[in-house]
TrEMBL record:
It comes from the Eukaryota. Keywords: Membrane, Transmembrane, Transmembrane helix. It comes from Araneus ventricosus. This is Gustatory receptor. The chain crosses the membrane at residues 49-68, 74-92, 123-142, 182-208, 248-269, 281-303, 354-373.
Length: 376
């Protein structure tokens, strides 16, 4: 389906190429085809190498600029978030073939239901993605590019007053420019990748929920034995997709939510308890808080409603099976036992209460740490 193809294209921009290379190999290649076989993989890997260079530059800049940081705590927090982003990228890259397999399975399963449509959801996700990318660029401009311009104006004024020290200060300015440029580049790359992963995870959850809704609707209308056999087959297909999501991406979504909660906590804490930062970086902290809140809420809600619809199907099917069909009941029971709900690294199953709990935890610890900090 077009929605899933769009996700594969977005992942490809970050070097995560999910296509099986064996499907595009030539059986008896001539010289021209052999040349294309060597060139095409290099072009295909180009985005991956760009992402790798950006990550290496960020690590080098973080190590080189740590001694010059005035606020060591903020530097450690930024380094932690950068490390988590790299871990998330590596885990998604390792599971790139799973992304392709899941998109193919979802497309094939959706064809079973003739009335399956997601046009409104597609428009909503496009709007969400564009808005998040706009927030990303606003954050980057306010936090990274604006200080470069301010520093440049400061250096010009200083050079007019004291020309003897201007050359030395300009050397420091160029170092500052290099560090800020790398930080801006990594910021845009990391935040855009987080948005792409969020759209992928949420879109798959919405697909699963819609498939369960269609299945539940058919269950309530047709009750023949052949229909129940077909329902079991369809449920098995959807459940396997959900199992792939749980087995291969539960750790990834755990890291993703850890990143958003750290970003949301930092933004809220500094807005509430750091007056100096509030005045200097109000717009950046506001955009950062909205960005992290949106990603966190989207993932939690989409995963929760997918789990809820799966539970409805599990609860509805056994009661509709005729009492004398013991073999069919046993098949359904075995299939339900193998079903897996979406969770955070197999630690906590997604439900609606998780959203309130996570936000309440951030608020509680933010007030506690802020109060203790003022007391000290």
């Amino acid at each position: 389906m077009n929605e899933l193809k769009m996700i594969c294209v977005l992942f490809y921009l970050f070097g995560i190429y999910a296509l099986d290379r064996s499907k595009i190999s030539f059986p008896n290649p001539d010289k021209e085809e052999m040349k294309n076989q060597r060139i095409i993989p290099c072009l295909r890997c180009f985005p991956k190498y760009i992402i790798l260079i950006i990550f290496l530059l960020k690590i080098t800049a973080a190590l080189a600029g740590f001694n010059f940081e005035v606020d060591k705590k903020s530097a450690i927090a930024r380094s932690l978030v950068a490390t988590l982003v790299i871990i998330l990228y590596v885990t998604v890259y390792r599971n790139r073939r799973v992304i392709l397999r899941m998109t193919v399975k979802l497309s094939e399963t959706a064809k079973i239901f003739p009335d399956f449509r997601l046009r409104r959801i597609k428009c909503a996700f496009i709007t969400f993605f564009v808005f998040v990318i706009a927030l990303t660029f606003f954050k980057g401009i306010v936090n990274h590019l604006k200080p470069i311009v301010d520093k440049r104006n400061e250096m010009r004024n200083f050079s007019e007053i004291n020309a003897t020290k201007a050359s030395l200060n300009f050397q420091l300015y160029y170092q500052f420019l290099a560090l800020k440029s790398i930080a801006f580049l990594f910021h845009i790359t990391a935040c855009t990748f987080l948005a792409v992963f969020t759209v992928f995870y949420c879109l798959v959850c919405i697909f699963l929920r819609k498939l369960f809704v269609e299945l539940l609707h058919q269950i309530k209308t047709d009750h023949s034995i052949n229909d129940f056999r077909r329902y079991l087959y369809v449920f098995r297909l959807i459940s396997r997709i959900m199992k792939d999501m749980e087995n291969f991406f539960s750790f990834s979504v755990f890291v993703m939510l850890l990143i958003t909660m750290i970003g949301l906590f930092r933004a809220g804490y500094r807005l509430a308890f750091d007056p100096k930062t509030f005045q200097e970086k109000f717009l950046y902290l506001l955009f950062s808080g909205i960005y992290n809140m949106l990603l966190q809420v989207m993932i939690m809600i989409s995963a929760s409603i997918a789990n809820e619809e799966a539970e409805k199907v599990v609860e509805s099917l056994p009661g509709l099976i005729p009492k004398h069909e013991n073999d069919l009941k046993l098949e359904f029971k075995n299939e339900f036992q193998q079903h897996k709900s979406l969770s955070l690294w197999k630690i906590y199953t997604f439900d609606r209460s998780l959203l309130i709990t996570s936000l309440g935890t951030l608020l509680t610890y933010g007030v506690l740490i802020g109060t203790l900090g003022r007391g000290n």
